[in-house]
Amino acid sequence: MSNEPAVSIFNAANIVGMVSAAMAVISAILSYLSYRKSSDEYEKNKKDNFIASINKCMDNVYIELSDYIKNYIGKKDTKEKKIVRERIVYSLESIRINLSGSSYTGSDVDDKFGDLSVKVSDTTFEINFEKSMHDLSQIKGCITNIKNILME
Amino acid sequence: MSSDNIIKYKFAEKYTEYPGGRFERLGPFSGEDFREKVLREIFETGKKIEIDATGVVTSFSPSFLDEAFGTLAKEYGYERFLDTVTMFSEDNPKLTDKMHYYVKRAANVK
Q1: B27 to chain A: closest CA residue
Q2: Pairing relation of β-strands B6-10 and B48-52?
Q3: Secondary structure of chain B: what % helix, strand, coil (to 5)?
Q4: ipTM score of the complex?
Q5: In this complex, which of A96, A107, A125 lies closest to B20 when CB atoms are compared?
Q6: What is the value of pTM for the model shown?
Q7: pLDDT digits (tens, 9 = 90+) for B32-91
Q8: Mutate to test the interface with A, among B16, B63, B95, B109 (most CBs of A within 10 A)
Q9: Do B62 and A90 touch (CB under 8 A)?
């Protein structure tokens, strides 16, 4: 029988190596979990910001349209009237492009927004004040409806 | 199809630089007016039209697009519409997409 000491896997160097490896694995797992959490939060914030910006743009369209009705409905097409209408149509177009390019919204929002944009556009060409005020109340309902879908 | 059957239509020169709203009763250069005076005949005679909207000053409103183009897509079918009407603008590359959006919506195409 040899007098050489048995080689144990539990010598000091091996223990240090195993502990280091375990710590590295734990550290990698923690880093991954942290990355996942911040990535999820980033996506959630991005979606919240997107929805908030769409809501704000729709509110602006509503405010522009109500001002337009107050100032121009029933009056002939002047330069100023054309410019304000153009601004409203441009705002609708910007919202449409943002919605259709987004992965956060589906075809239900697209459909509702299509209805809204046609309704707003029709109202800017209306000649009867009472009719346009009636349209405005329907538009308010459409905007609220889209906001509710976006929040789901 | 021969090129004789494709009508090249410069919208700003031949019709208006300021397209209007939906119905004729609401003002000039409406979607209804453009549909009945220009597009209807194209569909009835089996010709094709290529609308060049370069130089149009104010935006095409959703009402105009819905009434002029969407109504025909609903009436003649989306495929026939696509085969008959093309539209572009050199100063507004998004116009084609915008027109198709309102046409699809009117023709109930997903």
Answers
A1: A125
A2: parallel
A3: 55, 15, 35
A4: 0.90
A5: A125
A6: 0.84
A7: 999 999 999 999 999 999 999 999 999 999 999 999 999 999 999 999 999 999 999 999
A8: B63
A9: no
